[in-house]
Design brief:
- About 35% of the residues lie in helices and about 20% in strands.
- With about 210 residues, it is α/β, with parallel strands linked by helices.
- The protein has an 8-stranded parallel beta barrel, surrounded by 7 helices.
- Helix 1 runs parallel beside helix 8 and helix 3 packs across helix 4.
- The longest helix is centred in the last third of the chain and has 12 residues.
- The mean pLDDT is about 90.
């Protein structure tokens, strides 16, 4: 069954709704150098991570300037996993050496170095990124290419980028990823989740079998 990650949570009510919807992973954004309504202070991230039940994986989403900075934030927030954007494969490897939690590398689906990231990260998030390497753009990318990447790599791959309750079924059927990752596609406004959209997204992502099955 396809795993679901509901990301960019900023409120207790939204976290509770994500858990109730059946999310496998929940994401909290902190320590990113871009302007986003989903940014949390480390203190706020700690507060929300502490509320995540043990059955759900908490993910810190960050863009560390250095691996040491990333490890320091991980130690402070204490998530189950850390997802990094805008990092080289060497920086991902260095962070993995410095922290005990799983390290997920968010990479652009068109990146030619995907295998290098796959060799050092515990999982990849295939996204449509901006010029700074940040995801959450709300833009889809080539799902046929993504499906080829998933089939070619042994590393776990989550699909992100422009996913919504309306298109996630088609995305899963086309790509057959380990999981899907959504943020802006389930929001009423920046950083505020639509609880019905959360429920529909999980339901439609997990209730579909890929065409090849």
């Amino acid at each position: 069954m396809t795993q679901t990650k509901l990301c960019g949570l900023t409120r207790e009510a939204d976290l509770a709704a994500a858990v109730e919807a059946g999310a496998d992973m929940v994401g909290f954004v902190s320590g990113v150098p871009i302007d986003t309504p989903r940014e949390l202070s480390p203190t706020r991230a700690v507060e929300l991570v502490e509320r995540v039940p043990s059955s759900v994986t908490s993910v810190l989403v960050t863009m560390p300037e250095t691996p040491a900075d990333g490890a320091e934030l991980v130690n402070r927030v204490e998530p189950d996993a850390v997802q990094v954007h805008g990092c080289s494969s060497a920086a991902v490897a260095a962070l993995a050496d410095r922290t005990p939690v799983s390290v997920v590398a968010a990479v652009d689906a068109t990146d030619d170095a995907l295998h290098e990231y796959a060799n050092v990260a515990d999982a990849l998030v295939l996204d449509a990124t901006d010029e700074q390497g940040a995801g959450g753009t709300g833009e889809t990318h080539d799902w046929q290419r993504a499906g080829t990447v998933v089939a070619d790599l042994s590393t776990l791959v989550l699909l992100a980028g422009g996913l919504t309750p309306e298109n996630v079924t088609r995305a899963v059927r086309t790509v057959d990823p380990f999981g899907v990752d959504v943020s802006s596609g389930v929001e009423m406004s920046g950083g505020v989740k639509d609880h019905e959209a959360l429920r529909q997204f999980v339901e439609r992502a997990t209730g579909v079998r890929p065409v090849s099955a």
